[in-house]
Amino acid sequence: MKKIFCINCYEESKHDEKFVAEIVNVRGLDLEVEHRYLECTICGELMEDPSNLDYNYIIDFKEYRRVKGLLQPEEIKMIREMYNMSQRDFADVLGMSHATLCRYEGGALQTEHHNSTFILATTPNALHKLVYMKFQATGNEKYENMLENIARVAGDIHNLSSNKSDHLELERMRGELLGYTNKFSKTQSIGTHVTKLLSGKHIKIHEDRRKVMSNFKGESGWKV
Ligand SMILES: [Zn+2]
């Protein structure tokens, strides 16, 4: 329990950690999430943890990606690292800015278009074709090195039938890459919770939060 200045009762008071189920709207989709707040032990007012202001946004985006079947930030990073590529090179090959890829790996919400691009990049032959065309057009030898790495990944997949244990290992890895977002299926219906939550104080808090939501760009580190 730590002492924080309460903006409601104007006291330097002790705050308890409190988790509250809320409905948030991300890109037009209502999601049920569990947000973390600090509760003033004097007046009961809830506030977001000033030392970790991104926490609840990261929860929201994570849930949005899960519901929409989008890749999570760590999965995007896994795909890139499968080819042993730097952020700069991977972004270049996929036709997005380095800053954009950095933000996605740092927790910002990717577009559906970019999400599809990442999924297509899990197929080595597709990525190889992209890089090969860049190599042909520019003659830049950095693309040659990328082609070697991609060919190695493609070769690993091709040669699997001769090695059962490697095959299983790769299937597990690909399962993690592409199946992860569907692993935790939710059985609870959001509709029943909407009704339950609509009258509560947390809705007010949520409305306040929504105002600043569009400013979050995911520049800070991954904290969840
Ligand atoms: Zn207070």
From TrEMBL:
Residues 76-107 form the HTH cro/C1-type domain. It holds the Pfam family HTH_3. InterPro entries: Cro/C1-type_HTH, Lambda_DNA-bd_dom_sf, MqsA. This is HTH cro/C1-type domain-containing protein.
